Amino acid sequence: MAASHLSHQPYQSHYQHQSYLQDLDLPTPWLTITGLRKASGSRSHQITVLDGVDLAVYEHEVLTLLGPAGAGKSALLEVLAGGDKPDGGHIHLAGQEVPKGSRAIGLAGTGFAPRQSVRDVLAAAARIRGAGRREIEDEVGSVLKGIGHRGDPQARAAEIPAEQQLFVAIGRELLAGAQVILLDDPLAGIDHARRDHVQDEIRAIRQEFALSLVVATRNAQQALSLSDRIAVLLNGKIAQTGTPLEIYERPASAQVAATIGTVNLLEPAVSVQLLNQTATFSVRPEKIRVVGDDYPAEADEVLATGTVLRVVYLGATSRITVRLDAEGAQIQVLRLNSAAPEDLPVGAGQRVTVVWPRRHAMRFE
Predict the structure, then answer these.
(1) Each residue of 50-86: pLDDT tens digit?
(2) 264-364 CATH pick, 2.60.120.620, 2.60.120.10, 3.40.190.10, 2.40.50.100
(3) Domain 3-260 falls under CATH 3.30.1330.10
(4) Where do the DSSP E strands lie in 42-98?
(5) Are 93 and 31 in contact (CB under 8 A)?
């Protein structure tokens, strides 16, 4: 369904079908958040929830807010959707301040009235936007097709599978006039075996309706696989924004590195022995290999000796924990179980050598 079939209010949409921004040659931001602040608690004991959040969301992209519990992700979505009032800052959509009561930014929640059918959910949203009876029928049919709903539209929305509830919730916000749709931990109620499929469907819906999506999650793997860009939110502040590759391979801090995936932190006392530099470094477990004593190291590789503490079999991979001789630091190695021939078979208590390319040691001041 073409996005122009829906009469978006209060902003008139000018979307056209196109693929998402693979090269991220980004135009002017579609949604701009500037200096957003929010505190909770009593006057005498306030807790900062959002601490001057600055963020840009571009047309047709999936931007994921990634952070631990309590980072401010849900609070930010509530403010953006108009469900909570910020203490300061500005929210602009298409260059205009978003007015109170606007439906242009919608939070897709899956709460449905017990007896409300799928069709009724969507039709009610279109009525909110002011659509007429014939227009409602056409739009509901188009949205049902666009979200891939193959079930009975008269089925109770609260009783259909969780993934279909999610898609209906997105359709509801779309029909109500949303041009940016917010998803708070959308895969939380989805079976693990279905999550990859649901992520594919979310991206397909985004492309079908030329939407911008802002997703909040604490799951780094979901953020990496779903997003065009990721904004890491820590303690109410945006710590770093970039593509999944940029955030994972070039994190701005040790905290960002740990948020996007498992890291081995090498404190200065360890780094000075292994890297001849007094600073904190991190190395991803998958960048490290366990090799034999006769391994022919290259000039750009770092070697360290230690003792295997444990080996955990994970199916396609194994996680090997090694206590280094350098300061007794512990590191983890993630090894494919179809390892290269020169990779050493290991067991607990074994003396080993670990190696990684020097370029994969990320330095943090």
Answers:
(1) 999 999 999 999 999 999 999 999 999 999 999 999 9
(2) 2.40.50.100
(3) no
(4) 46-57, 62-66, 88-93, 96-97
(5) yes
